[in-house]
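Allow me, if you will, to draw on your knowledge of protein folds for a short while. I am sending you one protein, given as its amino acid sequence and as whole-number tokens for its backbone shapes. Kindly check, if you would, that the fold set down in the tokens agrees with what the sequence suggests. The record follows directly beneath this note:
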Amino acid sequence: MQRRTFIKQASASAAALSLGGLTATAQSYNRIIGANERINVAIIGCQRRYGGLLDSISKTPNTQVVFVSDVNQQRQNKAIEKVAKVMGQKPQGEKDMRKIMENKEVDATFHATPDHWHAPGSILSMQGGKHVYVEKPCSHNPAEGEMLIAWQKKTGLQVQMGAQQRSSLESQEIIQAIHEGLIGEAYHATAFYSNNRGRVPDANKIPVPDYLDWELFQGPAPRTDFIDIVGDYNWHWYWRWGTAETGNNATHEFDIARWALQVKFPEEVRVNSAKNHFRDDPWTMYDTMYATLKFPGGKVINWDGKSRNANPTYGGGRGTVIYGTEGSVFVDRGHYKHYDRDGKLVTEKVSGGDEAGTALGGGGSLTDRHVRNFFEAIRGKAKLACPIDEGSISTNLCHYANTSSREGDAILKIDPKTGKYTDRKIMKKYWGRDYEKGWAPEQA
């Protein structure tokens, strides 16, 4: 089994990393793993998304899942058995991801944790010399995105965000055609998502179950009492841990819209947001949002997000419509359609693969391709489809929309060169977050 090489820091002034007890005094160096070497993987987080990731990992030659980690012992035990069945080898289980980051046998980590752990966990991985596949959104706030980019640059490791539509052959094909002038000058995109999420059960403060490590679940987030509904999926709807439906799903479509229009940071963001359904349930955020992001050069991206009304406004549950001076394109995970300026269908192409649309957990052929791309990049055979510097920008669009909503649908001004809020009070309040003492991620 190949062991990763570490360069020991000789200088006493070398920065050590510290996050809730993990300490390292070595800087990783990026070794390209050969085509015939096995890549040892740890899956961090064994909730809904890990199954799709495991399936994709299992289809990639010369890979092995050697660790699974979850703060819920019951979930972790089930994951150990599932990995053994799928991969043919039983992995180790370790509820504390920090111990895995210290293990030099692990080459890469897949992060499918709650959102508040995405960036801190990924930073720990890079500090431990591991390549990173982090689910979207890659950060809980814009400052964490900056840290991810800085650590990637410092270590030279491969860091991919799980925006798997970037690996779609059909999406790559039609976006390239748009860039080459298929619809003239692309100036506007509407990204959308529609679902019919139900009522969130009443939240009850109860003793922490003996199978759950509540301290590790909270990790970098400020401490609070345990409530019985957050352990599986409903943590998404609390700002302490989640990033709302925009972070949960708009990340994908924002990424496609931004890719198509070839834009980075907006200069203005405004939203209309509200909680329109089950207003007495413990969902603490908006469930409906319409956002407008204006970019330099007059380009615009709209986001139409409906968490609890599955009306297929644009002909499906999710996707992106791109408008140009000579036509338009609809693209989602399964196909694309090209229309002329009269609205007449010119070309349609349907993918031969499969990929979950609005279903919880995801998985399918796009995830297969995205995971394979990640491993090929580690081996030096490909460039990442969604490297962290791109993923972080797309994630920031979600953070901007969320900030506007949290400020009463305030109009936000953004510096399009830096991506930062121009209002100092907004910067101070929303660019980063408060961390539990001893759990803040280290700066690169």
